[in-house]
Amino acid sequence: MVCIAAFIILGIIGIFVAIISVFKRDFGHAYWKAMKKAWGCVGKKIRLQKCDTNFKDDVKNTLLKKVILKQPKLVKPLSIIIEILSVIIVIIFIWAILIAIKSLLALWALGTCNVAKPSACTLGSEVCSLDDKEDNAGILEQTGRWFTEWGDIFSAIPDRVRAWNAEEYFVEPVTFVDASILDDTKESFTEDKPYAVDILDPGCSACMNSFRNQLESGFFEDHQTALLVYPIESDGVYKFANSDLIARYFYASALLDQGELPEEQHHFDLKLINKIFTGKTDNGQIIQSYLASLDYDEAKQTLKSYLKEFGATDEDLKQISVLEKSDEVKVILERVKDVAENQVKITGIPTLIYDGRKHLGRYEK
């Protein structure tokens, strides 16, 4: 283990030696000689052969030569300590290699280098995690989670390489994003445009930023994009305040348009999401964060005021209030949850499906 540890340490300091050897060639030559010995030792270990004891002794003697002269009694215990430290260095090195491989595989297969906390991965896109694992979990739980995450990564690889058909994940009633309704300068999509699915939580800031980017970049004009509003829930608790209420009002508004001719539809559902993601209050606060700061009853009244702003009549509001509490909306939300968690198998949101691929995180314009 001493020679392998020496090889690891020599490899790490190699970059600094390369710089120093420009000015002191003898120093670089001595380093390279030691590096070749260490590499030969590693090669023998890989072939299950014994390392040269002279190199092992060289390393120990270099570290202990002053102790041998002054405190010979300390040589044996220090030698044992060097062996133990060598084992620790090798274990840490192997662990670091495994972590690097795991992170890269997760980034490729799942779109995040941190399976437990997708939002904590700085290499991936901005995302809201579904269920962040507790950092204070015990060693056994963390170890079990580590192996489980490997399973999640390998099970996601087939999804990464297969073709995704967005139309397979529509949930009735389907709300398509018509950019022309939200912005007079935008064009409406045409029926020959490819389908896309956007799974989002109205309380997720990454979903808000993704929606804005899609709107500004012309994504909604180039794709027939269906919205699946999915309030993140874990153990009966919603991750974002009032996101479940907004989701119910969204689907209740969508049901209001069912059976209506296109020119007679209100599009309250689409306008509501757009208002939450792109609007601000009179004092400049983002409406998404404003709604999250309200209690349940205040949020409900605020949503009704937005619907009135969109042109909803008292009768419309009455119907929406009945529908948002109905079993019909409850069934829709259950279907959306099934699609998101069991069919698409999302690890975070927003999750988008377009151009035959599944994409995790904020859409980049």
Protein described:
The protein has helices at residues 2-21, 25-46, 53-70, 75-110, 139-161, 179-182, 205-217, 219-222, 243-256, 268-278, 287-292, 296-309, 314-323, 327-343; strands at residues 128-129, 175-176, 195-200, 224-229, 233-234, 237-238, 348-349, 351-354, 357-360. The chain is of the alpha+beta class. The chain has 3 domains: 2-99, no CATH class; 109-158, no CATH class; 164-360, Glutaredoxin (3-Layer(aba) Sandwich), CATH 3.40.30. A hairpin with a 2-residue loop joins β8 (351-354) and β9 (357-360). α1 runs antiparallel to α2, α4 (75-110) runs parallel beside α5 and α9 (243-256) crosses α14. The model is unreliable at 1-8 and 13-23 (pLDDT under 50).
CATH superfamily of the largest domain: Glutaredoxin
Described by the principal axes of the CA atoms, the overall outline is: elongated
User: What is the CATH architecture term of the largest domain?
Assistant: 3-Layer(aba) Sandwich
CATH class of the largest domain: Alpha Beta
Could you estimate the helical fraction of the residues in percent?
Answer: 55-70%
In sequence order, what are the helices and strands, one letter per element? HHHHEHEHEHHEEEHHHHHHEEE
Q: What's the CATH topology name of the largest domain?
A: Glutaredoxin
Short characterization:
This protein is an alpha+beta fold and 365 residues long. The protein has helices at residues 2-21, 25-46, 53-70, 75-110, 139-161, 179-182, 205-217, 219-222, 243-256, 268-278, 287-292, 296-309, 314-323, 327-343, and strands spanning 128-129, 175-176, 195-200, 224-229, 233-234, 237-238, 348-349, 351-354, 357-360. The chain is built from 14 helices and nine strands.
